[in-house]
């Protein structure tokens, strides 16, 4: 089954949220600094990602190039 990515950016909180398909209840696990993977509690499949301080991290990485 083909699932589309859905993006939501909260400018005030500087959070980028990416859902795989329709957003679902999930448990978030930090896998790197400010980078979280969201996992379904029922089947442990990845249902999305969340990046905190997105614009700060993005601009920092752009300046390195």
Strands in their spatial order, largest beta sheet: 1-2-5-4-3
Q: Helicity, in percent? A: 10-25%
Report the end-to-end length measured between terminal Cα atoms: 37 Å
Tally of alpha and pi helices: 1
Strand count, sense and barrel status of the largest sheet are: 5 strands, antiparallel
Please identify the structural class as seen in this structure.
Answer: alpha+beta
Segments where pLDDT lies below 50 for 5+ residues? none
Q: Note the run of SSEs as H and E.
A: EEEEEH
Q: What's the pLDDT, averaged over the residues? A: 89
Principal-axis shape equals globular
Spatial extent as radius of gyration: 13 Å
Oligomeric description of these chains = single chain
For the secondary structure, the number of strands is 5
Which band does the percent of strand residues land in? Answer: over 45%
Write up what this structure looks like.
The protein is an alpha+beta fold. Helices cover 17% and strands 46% of the residues. It has one helix at 54-64; strands at residues 5-10, 15-20, 27-32, 35-39, 46-52. A hairpin with a 2-residue loop joins strand 3 (27-32) and strand 4.
